[in-house]
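TASK: fixed-backbone design
INPUT:
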């Protein structure tokens, strides 16, 4: 799987590029087609970021990531 930097992930925020990506536990997921991530925002969360530390505050579990396509891993 391809490795992307945090800067490359940040460009997939729903504003700078067509792709909308988020990372969780080192894996990058494509949420472009999710109606819940329109314009790169999902409630108080923004795309193009690592959401690992934010998940404990979410009303759902990490199982939501099982439905998403993995596009890469997060590197330095």
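OUTPUT:
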């Amino acid at each position: 799987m391809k490795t992307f930097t945090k800067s490359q992930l940040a460009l997939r925020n729903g504003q700078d590029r067509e792709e909308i990506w988020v990372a969780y536990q080192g894996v990058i997921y494509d949420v472009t087609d999710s109606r819940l991530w329109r314009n790169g925002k999902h409630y108080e969360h923004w795309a193009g970021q690592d959401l690992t530390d934010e998940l404990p505050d979410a009303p759902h579990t990490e199982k939501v990531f099982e439905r998403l396509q993995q596009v890469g891993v997060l590197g330095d």
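COMMENT: The two ends are 15 Å apart (CA to CA).
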